[in-house]
Please model this.
Amino acid sequence: MAQKSETIFKYVLIHYRWVFVCLFLLPISFLFDMWLFCRNYIVFKLNSAPSQHDAKVKNVQRQILRWNKIKGKKPQLCTARPGWQTMSFRQGIYKETFEKIEVNLVDILQINSKKKSVYVEPLVNMGQLTAMLNPLGWTIPVLPELDDLTVGGLVMGTGIESSSHIHGLFQHNCLSYEIVLADGSIIKCSADENTDLFYGIPWSYGTLGILTGVELKLIPAKKYLELTYVPFKSSEDMAKYLRKTVENKINEFVEVLVFNKSESVVMIGKQTDKIDTDNFNPIGRWYKPWFFKHVQDMLNQKSHVTECAPLRDYYHRHSRSIFWELQDIIPFGNNFFFRLFLGWLVPPKISLLKLTQSETTKELYENNHIIQDMLIPLSFLNESISFFEKQVGVYPLWVCPFKLPNNPGFLHPTKSNFEMYVDIGIYGVPKVNNFKPRETTRKIEKFVTERNGFQMLYADTYMTREEFRQMFDHNLYDKLRKLYKCEEAFPEVYDKVCKEARK
Model:
């Protein structure tokens, strides 16, 4: 009887969680976003954020100095930001026992049009940036599409976008960092100043210090984007077209959605100030179909289709449906009537989805769901699509090409010569009978390592420490850990991202 009750409970959680999401999480998420938008706009317009920044950094410094002198450097340090507020599905167990450093670094500090840079605090998110920069005629070269992704997370972890085939990863467009070290000192670094630290901070996951400021490169932004959809019925033809497209660098934006082993749609885009009224499609409006569904319809076209969309709509094109994850939470979310009457509330905040998960929900999610991003040389794209179909059978796949400069640090090509990479994003419910989270992910990690690829570390990592060090170059990282006496203050990256460190 007890087993039957548990089965019924799990069934309700899987099939009717949308009731709780629609009645509670959607309104709360909307109200929170409205409050945050108004708060950020007022703070920036009143110019209070820059004057407060030094005081906020000194507060971080004060806490670390207190840990050094009064608490005897125990336990190790982390930020006080709760794990449920991050975009990762997991929450770090270390948050329960570490010394938590309070940070309130959420503001855009300065836009410097002469230097073409914007100085921000690390908890500024992508929605904040586009709302502030685009009306002023500016943007950043790599702007990841989910609204709540933060600058600090994209620096310490990683960030990628459909412009990355030209501009690289998010970290490659950062001009300088400000960081508070384990001894409480504040240091600034760039490609010309404290160079080793500048290249060592990306992917370091807060294990070299507490990030307090980031200077980002700015580029001009136009009002609209001319977006062309090119459907393919063969993965081989798609891969050839993709390579040719990214190599000529004519298009500012390039990405692919793969809908099955054969069918895919390549999207290429260029900014423009001219609006084509006949082909204008504001893809970000609440009543519009979810973007990936709109793209899927392009498979029925015999040739390419071109339309014009507002630039900010394009930047956040995957936000409303959280790529395609929302269809598993609100199965009818793309229904026309739902979009028309309630689409303006979508999406629920990922942080609130995490916060309101029960242990049963987490268990079901872990055993019946996969979220991974694998960075692989473009030459292995077709092989990777076939491999992932056998292992997980999840579609769509998100394919985003990017260049990977041979800079020092955690992540760089194993070869000195230039090679284009692709990020293959796998998000959804596996459609194979033999899916086992640990065993399947281990196979994927091995496949990626053998092809000189990398795993994004926000997701589950089952590698051993030795395998992790084989995938990522620790030479500069180890040197910086010793130089800045990080061993007592912060764990290694592996100890923060491995499966045993997360729940």
In short: The chain has a mean pLDDT of 90. Residues 224-320 form a domain with the Alpha-Beta Plaits fold (CATH 3.30.70). The CA atoms of residues 414 and 452 lie 7 Å apart. The first strand starts at residue 77 and ends at 79.
